[in-house]
Specification:
The complex is a heterodimer of chains A (178) and B (555). By secondary structure, chain A is mainly α. Helix content of chain A is 77%, strand content 0%. The N and C termini of chain A lie far apart (89 Å). Chain B starts with a helix and ends in a 7-residue tail after the last helix. Classes of the chains: A mainly alpha (178), B mainly alpha (555).
Chain lengths: 178, 555
């Protein structure tokens, strides 16, 4: 059985376990809510994980162009970037997939996987982590931009008044010069 | 050495879950939680408001907080007074059965997963102390019955979590007992205020308001400058020199708006809308440069502070000799007016009358007690009685949805009027999903004094449920503008959307009214109140239309 066939066959089980692991990065009292509350508007975090993790898993199995899943990584990392996670914890949810797949293979002697295939899966997960880290950094930069831009909004009218006063003074100077 | 300390097999045992903790474990590491709390109040502002300044200069991440020696005594005396004074507090302390109906309704919990952001647990932070002090079971059995001592760590935990509640009251909608967690937050913040613990973003605006009449600290001439500037801008846009009555004695109506409307973006465009509307209907009214703030940051301090800052509205109405007061688009301003104003300052209503619209003759019976009418009610009534002409196609470049601002929706039930107005001024209105609007509306995540910058991460995750619903209508219907009628919303939703749903702007309802309003004698409009081209009305569109022979008449 090739690695691809194996992952395809066990996709549902891998997804369930991965989802559980990601949800377990939150306090245990909240995991039930994230997992079981189905309405996407009442539970945006759980719904996002339910929607995006299978897309990432698909990309891993089918060796798609990883750029196509950048949006799915963004959806998850954007949330984790404003939660009480360190940078490593915010992007580390992708590494949990390695652990889940290893566990899925562990002790199952009937399964033999080509080591190159396994390394290629690990490489792909690693690349996703790098993408996640770039996205995480861009989220943090965005937050700093937002912080600085909020001052501009507060002084909007003052800035416009100053602009108008400057225009008038320029016009006055021109008239005097003439 | 290193080999002894770190063993490879141990290092490979990675625990991915956060450790389980007893919820009573209250130690907060403020240094590690930057982005989640707000800076403390500056002593000068505290002093100006006659608040306890014993703590002097301090910040939450300081290792030791310079609490007054008798801080515990102050808290318990304060709690005792309030339990006697507010029957609701006593009931809220005793009747919660921890059914959990509120648990997953708070936007901060939904966005963070922090169990102490569940309204029931947040309230337990106070209840546990109450049980220990006031109940026999709590005194005898302690932790077994959810009772605990008030310690410095508990006090710090109060500061951390009760400034992570926006008093939006979504949780109270779902409580079968009607417990209003916002009231519990209000009381705990009062208690913290007594020992001198508050945040700068609340205390400085309140002291500004006490000094100048508005949170921004704008002096009377500054308010006038801004209004005159708006008058000039409206002349550029409409060609009309609009009326600008300021501090005019003998006017029929006093108009009070939140102070951000004078200076901030996008609030200011709503102010242009008010001015255009009042000019068009020939309203006999006045602005005041003294009662120049509708909002009331006293609400985030204490009941006494609410009363103190609110009194100026009636005092100024009395000085100017008006008959009633009209109020602008603001959120917590209306919670104060609707729920506290008459009780607190009703005796100052000299000469005020039950409000009657001078344009339609409609009697606003709902405002009989306060003598103050919300502008959404006033404008909806004008539209209902065909007193203004509107061209909704002037807003065709805007595809709006409406965010029910928490306080107008939940504290005063103002739900249909704004929608009635929006439908009259827009052809493209789309609602967000049912469980995110009206009484169930999700908070912006930054109300009740939390709209500052140092806690941005907390604000952004608190606003996630709201932004998530906006994103849905943005993707489904192409919504490009989020309407609201709250000054805090107008300040805090733009950054929220910039992070979660870039490309969606924020606007007030009366900005769209101002765009759609057909004003007598006005020049042909090509731009909206933001001076951006209106679809089908701008010069480029006219050229295209002229070339194709289409009729470009729009008014």
């Amino acid at each position: 059985m090739s690695m691809k066939e194996l992952l395809q066959e066990r996709k549902d089980s891998i997804f369930e376990k991965w989802l559980d692991r990601v949800i377990m990065t939150y306090p245990s009292e909240s995991s039930n809510f994230f997992k079981n509350k189905k309405n996407r508007f009442d539970n945006p975090i759980g719904s996002t994980l339910n929607k995006e993790l299978p897309i990432l898993l698909d990309a891993l199995i089918n060796l798609n162009d990883l750029d196509e899943v950048s949006n799915s990584i963004d959806e998850i990392v954007r949330i984790r970037a404003v939660q009480e996670f360190s940078a490593a914890q915010a992007v580390g949810f992708l590494l949990l997939l390695k652990k889940v797949i290893r566990e899925e293979l562990d002790g199952k002697t009937e399964i033999s996987v080509n080591v190159d295939d396994w390394w290629s899966v690990e490489d792909k997960i690693d690349r996703m982590v790098f993408m996640a880290f770039d996205i995480y950094m861009s989220c943090k930069e965005k937050i700093f931009e937002i912080r600085s831009r909020s001052f501009e909004r507060q002084t909007y009218v003052l800035d416009k008044m100053a602009e108008r006063a400057a225009e008038r003074s320029d016009k006055g100077e021109e008239m005097n010069a003439n | 050495m290193a080999e002894d300390k770190y063993k490879q097999e141990d290092l490979l045992k990675i625990e991915y879950c956060p450790p389980r903790k007893d919820w009573m474990d209250s130690k907060i590491d403020f240094e590690a939680k930057k982005g989640n709390w707000c800076y403390s109040a500056v002593p000068a502002a505290m002093e100006y408001l006659d608040l306890n300044t014993e703590m002097g200069k301090w910040q939450p991440h300081d290792k030791d907080w310079p609490l007054p020696d008798n801080w515990k005594e102050i808290i318990f005396e304060g709690l005792h007074d309030r339990l006697k004074k507010f029957r609701t507090l006593q009931i809220f302390m005793d009747i919660c059965v921890r059914c959990g109906a509120c648990a997953d309704k708070c936007h901060f919990f939904i966005g963070s997963g922090d169990p102490k952001n569940m309204p029931v647990v947040r309230a337990e932070l106070l209840r546990s102390v109450y049980r220990k002090e006031y109940t026999t079971a709590g005194k005898l059995l302690g932790k077994m019955v959810g009772a605990r001592e008030l310690t410095v760590d508990v006090l710090k935990e109060w500061f951390y979590y009760f400034f992570q509640c926006t008093e939006c009251r979504r949780c109270s909608v779902f409580c079968p007992y009607g417990i209003d967690t916002a009231e519990i937050t209000i009381i705990v913040r009062e208690l913290l205020d007594l020992v001198g613990m508050n945040i700068d973003w609340i205390t400085t605006p309140a002291s500004n308001c006490f000094r100048t009449g508005n949170h921004l600290g704008i002096q009377p001439h500054g308010v006038l400058d801004s209004l005159e500037f708006a008058q000039e801008e409206l002349e550029d846009i409409t060609g009309l020199k609009i009326d600008l009555p300021v501090n005019r004695k003998g006017a029929e109506i006093l108009f009070i708006a939140p102070s951000a409307d004078y200076f901030a973006n996008p609030h200011y465009f709503t102010l242009l809308g008010y001015l255009a509307l009042f000019h068009e209907i020939g309203l006999d009214y006045t602005w005041s440069t003294f009662a120049s703030e509708g909002g009331n940051f006293g609400l985030f301090h204490s009941h006494d502070m609410i009363k103190r800052l609110n009194a100026k509205m009636y005092m100024e109405a009395d000085r100017l000799g008006v008959k009633w007061i009209l109020g602008g688009e603001c959120g917590h301003m209306w919670r104060v007016i609707h729920q506290y104003m008459h009780t607190m300052n009703g005796e100052r209503q000299n000469g005020l009358e039950e409000p009657v619209s001078p344009i339609t003759g409609t009697k606003f019976e709902n405002a009989k007690a306060t003598k103050m009418v919300h502008i959404a009610e006033f404008t909806a009534d004008l539209i209902k009685n065909n007193k203004i002409k509107l061209d909704p196609s002037r807003n065709d470049h805007i595809i709006p949805t409406y965010h029910d601002s928490c306080n107008p929706a939940r504290a005063m039930g103002l739900i249909e009027e704004p929608r009635y107005i929006i439908n009259a001024v827009s052809n493209n209105f789309h609602e967000m999903p049912e469980n995110t609007i009206r009484e169930q509306t999700f908070c912006c995540g930054s109300g009740a004094g939390l709209g500052t910058d140092e806690n941005m991460e907390m604000r952004l995750r608190g606003g996630l449920p709201r932004a998530n619903a906006v994103k849905y209508v943005n993707e489904k219907h192409g919504v490009n503008q989020l309407l609201c009628m709250c000054a805090i919303d107008k300040a805090t939703l733009p950054p929220l959307l910039e992070y979660w749903v870039p490309g969606v702007e924020v606007a007030g309802i009366h900005e769209l009214v101002g765009n759609a309003l057909i004003m007598e004698g006005a020049k042909e409009r090509t731009v909206d109140l933001r001076e951006e081209p209106m679809l089908g009305f701008d010069e480029e569109s006219e050229k295209v239309s002229a070339a194709t022979g289409e009729d470009t008449e729009n008014v």
